[in-house]
Amino acid sequence: MIPPRLRLPAGLLLAALSVVAPSASAAPPATADVIASGLEWLANRQSRRGSWSANEGRYPTAITAIAGTALLMEGSTTAQGRYAEPIRRSVDFLISRARPNGLIGDPKDDDRYTYGHGFAMLFLSQVLGEEDDDRRREELVGVLTRAVEFSGRAQTKDGGWGYVSAADGNDFDEGSTTITQVQGLRGCRNAGIAVPREIIDRAIGYVHACTLPDGGVQYSSKGGGGRPAISAAAIAALFNAGEEDDTHVPRMLAYARKHLGNIANNSFGHWHYAHFYYAQVMYREEGESWETYRDQVERRLVEEAQRDPQGTYWTQGYIGHAYTTATNLTILQLDKGMLPIYQR
What is the number of structural domains in the chain? Predict the structure, then answer.
């Protein structure tokens, strides 16, 4: 049975979600400059509709949510801050793509729509925690409540998710889209949206079933071999699900460190995606492990940054500059501790 949605007065809910961010050391000047210039580039590249997209206009829901999250991490909200306007426009765009069945996205240009749905839940749930306009809060709660219900229906019999819903994809699942659902659902739960525990438990069981003896997490419940990027993402998802003491985590961490601990290692593919999640894992580790990793990844990202008249950006293969720039800005801003989903 699905429990009733948590109902709190707006002010009380905001107080409950206003977690005091951990004190963060100031970023080195070169890093701070790249962050500031990268955020400007993102804001300048937002479309008039309020969206960003991948190459060839693909995946606008996912890329808009990832870019909007990067802007939120700067400290702006929909009501105040340097990026309040582009954040509001991002929210408007994503709400406009919410369908009656709960899906946030449009299969016409989000052919792998589960990604967009998961990232949109994560972004909008972080917005909800700081939204003080009653009408907009009510709208967001409705969108996210239906989105959670859609995710529950879209889950496969093995507890994962595929590029599309279980019904549309013949019950196919794969690791990376599963992680977006777990993080999005956790964000919703943190924001007071009811998330049935059985959905999360089944997803945790899926991650366990996909974890190989060496700690690598395979591509799908059907096989595909261990993947460093998916392994890092799976650890982050377990942490978000409150499973820091999960017995699978130590060997998963050992596998991730083996393949991702060397910042210069590009042999496994999807470097930016992998470190988008591995950085979240290392941030939760705290102390010297995080500081050493942070310094190394910052140096690499600062060196790889490119500039044009609109600001600083990063390139990456077939997905596109907005995606890579937003994921790298997420890595570089974790130390700010601004968003509940990324806090320790």
Answer: 1
